[in-house]
Amino acid sequence: RDRARALGVRVPRGLVTTDPADAAALLPAERYVLKVLDRHYVEPEPGRFDWYLPRVLDRDRLAGVPGLPRGTPVVVQEYVEHDAEYRVYLAGDELHAFEVAKERPEDIWTRPDAVRVREVRAPDAVASAARALAGETGAVYGAFDFLWARGEPVFLEMNAHGDWHWFERKAGVDVVTRAVVRTVRDLHRAAVGDARPAAVSLLAFLGAGRGG
């Protein structure tokens, strides 16, 4: 987030705390996004884990959040009113974007059929921000989440995992898969040049013809 700010990319205000109600005094807003750190799990009692997904809460609901064990480390982030939400994939030099429409943050996990996804051309400011962030971190692949709010991008996070298939399936395309294949091919060629591996017999590789 600090790198994004240094690049002039807006990010929501937020902080890490074990007391969401106390955090509201330090981070004035009407609504907040609350999510647990790292994995989406909490431990209500020793040895038992419950799934706890990100949620949007009004300020007066931050005290005694239902289902959140006392003392759990969470991220409390201002809720940003927005006109659109984008998932942007960078693979090598290629950029592919999807517009995502959902009612609640947890819908991707709890109501995937209600989430609408379509391939779009990212607004120029979103594309520029994604490329700048990738350049700052040296990433050749990344999945960037942005909001579009009052004519400017708001950067949420960058994920390094390869979850593009879900978005492709929802949108009915395979553009990211193809971009990743091209990127891996180009990286391989850059690493080995014209070198080629020795010929390998497929049957031998599969273990056929070996003595019993």
Model regions low in confidence, pLDDT < 50 over at least 5 residues: none
CATH fold type of the largest domain: D-amino Acid Aminotransferase, Chain A, domain 1
CATH architecture type of the largest domain: 2-Layer Sandwich
Distance between the termini: 60 Å
Briefly, what CATH class of the largest domain? Alpha Beta
Structural class of the helix and strand makeup?
alpha+beta
| Percent range for β-strand residues | 25-35%
Give the overall shape. Answer: globular
The SSE order reads: HEHEEEEEEEHEHEEHHH
Strand order across the biggest sheet? 9-8-7-10-11
Number of helices: 7
Describe this structure in words.
The chain is an alpha+beta fold and 212 residues long. It has two domains: 2-78, no CATH class; 84-191, 2-Layer Sandwich (D-amino Acid Aminotransferase, Chain A, domain 1), CATH 3.30.470. The protein contains seven helices and eleven strands. It has helices at residues 2-6, 20-26, 107-110, 124-137, 164-171, 175-192, 202-205, and strands at residues 14-17, 31-36, 41-45, 48-51, 55-58, 74-78, 84-91, 94-101, 116-120, 141-149, 152-159. The strands form three sheets. Strands 9-8-7-10-11 form a five-stranded antiparallel beta sheet, with helices on both faces. The protein has a four-stranded antiparallel beta sheet with strand order 1-6-2-5, with helices on one face. The chain has a two-stranded antiparallel sheet with strand order 3-4. The mean pLDDT is 88.
